[in-house]
């Protein structure tokens, strides 16, 4: 049975290679590196969630850099169509996995520990299943490969509301954020998420004009078809340490998902941070850091 499964996995991995994105369809992700000493341990690579950015992770990345044992470099990236990374007309998990492959190959990273939140977590899962030799261990933050995303109803409405609101031309960034939050809350009731999105993504460009960091139109077009549901990766499995961290107030990772998750990630562990919602690392940063460090430092 084990031999048959291994052969089937090899066939599927060959199939995935044949449909891989062409190199000219990948993008070079913008990134920050937290590294002040030499080390030989695999670095930590962090990807934010949908409508997030690598800037959300700066404080935690700096702390991870200081407190991992043995010390590790920590790298946070902006996904395509987010932050300072290039925009693209396509946004899918297979493409995001190829962006990660291009990134680690260019930097000469042979193996790394991956941390991903929400959309970034699913991209990291896809990469780990397709390219397990490049991955040491996996930390997935408040997202599951099972079923449709709970954001299925929230995100399209939020993006449509954002697209419908004209950005003011003469307002300061503080005034614009205040007014946009007020207008978005008329159609989106999740105040914490609206604040997170606006504070993370509204910026002024080099010409002093307000703009969003993410590609509103492409994400709106891609969400339901390409992001809300994780691709079927069976029979591939990632048979190395994996940690699924979820918020106690969130419904993104349910106990009913665990059995299906274990089929893809047989060594998966599950931790719940009480009092945290979907943006676990922002709402409960100390508790989240402690859980991550325990996992990273335990599996040496």
Structural class: alpha/beta
Largest sheet: 7 strands, mixed
Number-wise, the strands total 9
Residues in β-strands, percent: 5-15%
- Calculate the mean pLDDT score and round it: 89
For the record, what CATH class of the largest domain applies?
Alpha Beta
State the separation between the terminal residues, measured CA to CA. Answer: 31 Å
Strand order in space, largest sheet? 1-3-2-4-5-8-9
Oligomer: single chain
How would you characterize this protein structure?
The structure is a single chain. The protein has eleven helices and nine strands. The protein is globular. The two termini are 31 Å apart. The strands form two sheets. The chain has a seven-stranded mixed beta sheet, sandwiched between helices. A two-stranded antiparallel sheet has the order 6-7. It has helices at 2-18, 58-67, 93-106, 119-130, 154-164, 173-184, 191-201, 216-227, 258-264, 280-283, 285-298, and strands at residues 31-34, 44-47, 74-77, 112-117, 135-141, 202-204, 210-212, 242-247, 268-273.
């Amino acid at each position: 049975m084990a031999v048959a499964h291994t052969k089937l996995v090899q066939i599927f991995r060959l199939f995935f290679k044949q449909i891989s994105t062409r190199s000219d369809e990948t993008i070079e992700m913008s990134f920050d590196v937290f590294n002040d000493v030499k080390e030989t341990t695999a670095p930590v690579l962090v990807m934010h969630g949908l409508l997030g950015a690598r800037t959300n992770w700066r404080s935690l990345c700096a702390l991870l850099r200081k407190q991992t044992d043995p010390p590790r470099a920590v790298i946070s990236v902006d996904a395509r169509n987010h932050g300072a990374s290039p925009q693209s007309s396509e946004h899918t998990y297979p493409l995001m996995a190829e962006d990660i492959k291009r990134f680690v190959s260019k930097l000469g990273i042979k193996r790394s520990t991956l941390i991903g939140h929400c959309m970034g977590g699913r991209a990291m899962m896809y990469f780990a299943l397709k390219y397990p030799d490049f991955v040491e261990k996996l930390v997935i933050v408040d997202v599951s490969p099972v079923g449709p995303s709970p954001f299925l109803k929230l995100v399209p409405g939020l993006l449509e509301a954002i697209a419908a609101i004209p950005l003011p031309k003469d307002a300061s960034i503080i005034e614009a954020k205040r007014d946009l939050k007020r207008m978005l809350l008329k159609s989106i009731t999740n105040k914490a998420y609206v604040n997170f999105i606006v504070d993370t993504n509204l910026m002024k460009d080099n010409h002093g004009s307000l703009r969003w960091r993410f590609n509103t139109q492409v994400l709106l077009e891609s969400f339901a078809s390409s992001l809300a549901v994780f691709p079927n990766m069976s029979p591939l499995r990632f048979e190395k340490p994996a940690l699924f961290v979820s918020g106690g107030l969130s419904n993104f990772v349910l106990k009913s998902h665990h059995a299906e998750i274990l089929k893809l990630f047989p060594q998966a562990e599950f931790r719940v941070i009480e009092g945290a919602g979907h943006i676990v690392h922002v709402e409960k940063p100390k508790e989240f850091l402690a859980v991550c460090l325990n996992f990273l430092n335990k599996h040496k």
